[in-house]
């Protein structure tokens, strides 16, 4: 795989490659994502189903839709999306991540088209999708506009893109960096660079430049009292964003 894509940050790829074997360990270094996953999966399923006029509570509401999970890591979202009926391409710049994801999907009996590649390479190949997911990845790329331009190019007319990331606020520094990395040890120190966190209007601006229109911004909050994540209005730390492409 070529590592020449402008959005790829080699240091970020190396950091996550080093942790690749732990993707599917719910008590390992990706424990926060395992805790977070049910909430974001429900959000993604419901928004895609509503957009394409599907019943989100049916067994396979995404049947017939082609979906890209860019920056898929070990496949924590790709696999569930495939189980919901979507034809899924899971792409990641780390070959080790793709190896772990492919092995797990094979063992689980789930079909996902995993590829060690970049958004730019996929776009250049003319790939098209009904929905593109960019989850916890935009804060790790080296060229945000270039990355999202490639993603926008791959969204079919009438399709949508869903992104999830962290806001750049004092609260996100306190909780997302100091607490998560140094006090609670939820993720390894140095996993995130607070300066690369994105305010919703910054991400929305980049999406507009990529030819997409902002649809919804929802906050994702953690409650230490019941150890649960939930969707709400508080976007100070984590948020998810839905953007659409005109038909």
UniProtKB/TrEMBL annotation:
SUPFAM superfamilies: S-adenosyl-L-methionine-dependent methyltransferases. It comes from the Bacteria. Its EC number is 2.1.1.222, 2.1.1.64. The keyword Phosphoprotein does not apply. InterPro entries: Methyltransf_11, SAM-dependent_MTases_sf, UbiG_MeTrfase. Pathway: Cofactor biosynthesis; ubiquinone biosynthesis. It holds the Pfam family Methyltransf_11. It catalyses: a 3-(all-trans-polyprenyl)benzene-1,2-diol + S-adenosyl-L-methionine = a 2-methoxy-6-(all-trans-polyprenyl)phenol + S-adenosyl-L-homocysteine + H(+); a 3-demethylubiquinol + S-adenosyl-L-methionine = a ubiquinol + S-adenosyl-L-homocysteine + H(+). Keywords: Methyltransferase, S-adenosyl-L-methionine, Transferase, Ubiquinone biosynthesis. The keyword Methyltransferase applies. CDD domains: AdoMet_MTases. Residues 68-162 form the Methyltransferase type domain. S-adenosyl-L-methionine binds at residues 40, 71, 92, 135. One of its GO terms (biological process) is methylation. O-methyltransferase that catalyzes the 2 O-methylation steps in the ubiquinone biosynthetic pathway. Belongs to the methyltransferase superfamily. UbiG/COQ3 family. This is Ubiquinone biosynthesis O-methyltransferase. It comes from Ferrovibrio terrae. The lineage of its organism: Bacteria, Pseudomonadati, Pseudomonadota, Alphaproteobacteria, Rhodospirillales. The gene is ubiG.
């Amino acid at each position: 795989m070529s590592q020449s894509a402008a959005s790829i940050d080699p240091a970020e790829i190396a950091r996550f490659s080093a942790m690749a074997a732990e993707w599917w360990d719910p008590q390992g270094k990706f424990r926060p994502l395992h805790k977070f996953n049910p909430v974001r999966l429900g959000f993604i399923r419901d928004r895609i189903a509503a957009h394409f006029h599907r019943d989100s509570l049916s067994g396979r509401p995404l049947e017939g839709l082609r979906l890209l999970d860019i920056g898929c890591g070990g496949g924590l979202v790709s696999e569930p999306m495939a189980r919901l009926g979507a034809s899924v391409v899971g792409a990641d710049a780390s070959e080790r991540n793709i190896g772990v994801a492919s092995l797990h999907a094979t063992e689980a009996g789930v079909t996902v088209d995993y590829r060690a590649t970049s958004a730019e390479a996929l776009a250049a190949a003319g790939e098209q999708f009904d929905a593109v997911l960019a989850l916890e990845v935009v804060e790790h790329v080296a060229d945000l506009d270039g990355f999202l331009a490639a993603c926008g190019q791959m969204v079919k007319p009438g399709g949508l893109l869903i992104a999830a990331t962290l806001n750049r606020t004092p609260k996100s520094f306190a909780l997302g960096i100091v607490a998560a990395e140094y006090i609670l040890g939820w993720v390894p120190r140095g996993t995130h660079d607070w300066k690369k966190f994105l305010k919703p209007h910054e991400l929305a601006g980049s999406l507009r430049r990529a030819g997409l229109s902002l649809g919804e911004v929802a906050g994702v909050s953690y409650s230490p009292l019941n150890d649960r994540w939930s969707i709400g209005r508080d976007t100070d730390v984590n948020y998810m964003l839905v953007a659409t492409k005109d038909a």
